[in-house]
């Protein structure tokens, strides 16, 4: 299946490497979140939100004369408006398409604010969006000004792969056939440019999160990701990097599986196992409380649950709050 806009000429870029503050952070926040727009390929721009922790995701902007594209949006209305402002500076017009890498609110809450002509996503995303939450329940995170979030579902869905013609370049949207971070993880691959928007299949400096997907499925997906010819990876969270980002993710996921196996043999809960575990080098990654949610998923899988099958998400988040000693930090 393919979509083509017939465009032949890329709009001229108006800036290659810019850093823009997103207002004054409240005093209780310890990290000053910044916006960084970087050209990661010829006319391919990454919208990076530092520090990449909860709900500070990355997005993509591909300006074209007839039909530009976004890869994902942002968690809040205000942050999505900054994406739109940066896109305008790069020459993006009114007619845009969007590719959603998965259903989570940090990547989709701003869809209606951008209001694209159409949104492309994996076939599982509509149901995942309908069953999940756009704005987290009170008490889960510290206070965030989400804005008025209107859920905008995808218009075009695909199963395994979808080829798009964006200007003169072929862009491949790929799903690897198994749950990983979620059920519907899609990557956006620019084979001519060797650039990959990996969505949340890649965290750079942050703890991977498999609660709503599959630990083993993610490990299997890494094999397929490494088969792509890629020089620049734009992770879902964290700065652009190389393919070696997947090495750290693999080590972490194998660590989770080993810990889950030990916990099952010892008859302890995911929370108990996490509390009594030395995270080692992984403790340097932000959002380390995700170890608890990952153990909920891994222990379910090792107990016979099929990858991606429903588990008690609410219980897992309650345990994460206990591990964290209160609401999870969020600078969105």
Automatic annotation (TrEMBL):
Pfam families: Lactamase_B (PF00753). CDD domains: metallo-hydrolase-like_MBL-fold (cd16282). Residues 15-26 have a biased composition (Basic and acidic residues). Residues 1-26 are annotated as: Disordered. It comes from the Bacteria. InterPro entries: Metallo-B-lactamas, NDM-1-like, RibonucZ/Hydroxyglut_hydro. SUPFAM superfamilies: Metallo-hydrolase/oxidoreductase. Residues 1-10 have a biased composition (Polar residues). SMART domains: Lactamase_B (SM00849). Residues 65-237 form the Metallo-beta-lactamase domain. This is MBL fold metallo-hydrolase. The lineage of its organism: Bacteria, Bacillati, Actinomycetota, Acidimicrobiia, Acidimicrobiales.
């Amino acid at each position: 299946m393919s979509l083509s806009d017939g465009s032949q000429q890329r709009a001229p870029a108006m800036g290659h490497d810019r850093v823009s503050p997103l207002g004054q952070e409240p005093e209780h926040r310890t990290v000053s979140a910044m916006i960084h727009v970087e050209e990661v390929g010829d006319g391919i721009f990454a919208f990076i939100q530092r520090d990449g922790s909860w709900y500070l995701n990355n997005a993509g902007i591909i300006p074209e004369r007839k039909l530009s594209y976004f890869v994902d949006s942002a968690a809040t209305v205000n942050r999505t408006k900054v994406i739109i402002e940066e896109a305008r500076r790069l020459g993006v017009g009114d007619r845009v398409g969007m590719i959603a890498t998965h259903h989570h609110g940090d990547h989709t809450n701003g869809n209606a604010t951008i209001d694209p002509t159409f949104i492309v996503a994996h076939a599982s995303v509509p149901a995942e969006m309908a069953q999940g939450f756009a704005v987290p329940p009170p008490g889960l995170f510290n206070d965030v000004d989400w804005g008025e979030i209107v859920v905008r579902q995808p218009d075009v869905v695909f199963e395994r792969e979808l080829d798009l013609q964006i200007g003169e370049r072929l862009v491949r949207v790929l799903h690897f056939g198994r749950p990983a971070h979620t059920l519907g993880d899609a990557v956006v691959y620019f084979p001519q440019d060797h650039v990959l928007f990996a969505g949340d299949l890649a965290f750079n400096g942050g703890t991977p999160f498999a609660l709503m997907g599959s630990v083993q499925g993610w490990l299997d997906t890494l094999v397929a990701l490494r088969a792509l010819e890629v020089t620049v990876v734009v992770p879902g969270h964290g700065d652009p990097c190389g393919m070696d980002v997947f090495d750290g993710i693999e080590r972490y996921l194998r660590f989770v599986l080993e810990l889950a196996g030990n916990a099952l043999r010892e008859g302890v809960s995911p929370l108990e196992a996490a509390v009594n575990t030395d995270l080692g080098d992984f403790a340097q990654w932000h959002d380390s409380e995700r170890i608890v949610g990952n153990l909920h998923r891994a222990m379910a899988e090792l107990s016979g649950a099929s990858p991606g099958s429903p588990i008690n998400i609410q219980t897992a988040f309650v345990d994460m709050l206990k591990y964290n000693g209160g609401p999870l930090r969020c600078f969105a």
